[in-house]
User: Fold this.
Amino acid sequence: GDEEDDIFFDPEGEVVEQKVTHEHSEALNQRIKEHLALLDHSDPDANGWEQITEDGEMKVYRKELVQDGLICDPLKAVHSVGLVTAKEMCHYFWFPDVRRDWEETVDVFDVLETLDEATTINYQTHKQVWPAAQRDCLYLSSMVKVDNPPSVGDKIPHDTWIVCNFSVDHPEANPVSGCVRALIEVALICQTFITLPKDGGPITRDCLQCDIIYVANVNPGGWAPASVLRSIYKREYPKFLNRFTNYVQQKTKDLKLLF
Ligand code: 18C
Assistant:
């Protein structure tokens, strides 16, 4: 389609420009803007986030939220891992070809459309959890470099990337029968921090620290027992973050740094 610029202001008041290249560009830009506001919260317990678990550097928070009788608890995790860049983390989270390498909760996975080099529309079904019906979701997934992130105090990131997944409709969806459609709003925000070698040598993987914020708002779309659902949350999100970050560290350990 026609390219035009959509200009908006980030929370610091700086102008951020995002290209409008496809029919979901404006929705995408709006969500990116909202997710990036999370970088402003230096206190992770701010705004009613309740910590539900932690594991090393990883902390997982939720807010209890029930909508129309359905449990829709927003989830937020913060993590920090060495040896990888923000772009590498986001690449492996976004790139459809490697989805099955790290995503354990998915059965069917199809790319329905490629909107640009870093944006796809995906359909997937998730493993069924007794006694609830199986879930599927249909979502746009896009990976974007963030040029002017809101600042997080005195730490200056080398670079910032985000992957944004959110539910959309698509005419070519061929849903698996019996599935209940879950609605998702997910973001993975990654920032690379570099400690330069004291001897002036080259930057190696040991110089890298990648800070991560992961947020997920999932509406289960239909009945699911509260206790089962909340225990799935508590178990599956930390499991995903550990598995995924280990996966990216393994995949990249012998590769050139990707910024
Ligand atoms: O972000 C992640 N993955 C991305 C790529 O797949 C994408 C996916 C988001 C998750 C959408 C969840 C939709 C419903 C899931 C159904 C439950 C499956 C659980 C299977 C357990 C064996 O952004 C990484 C996501 C990793 C965490 C997934 C767990 C999500 C739990 C949400 C539960 C809400 C649905 C209720 C289902 C019924 C349960 C009784």
Observations:
- The CA atoms of residues 43 and 49 lie 10 Å apart.
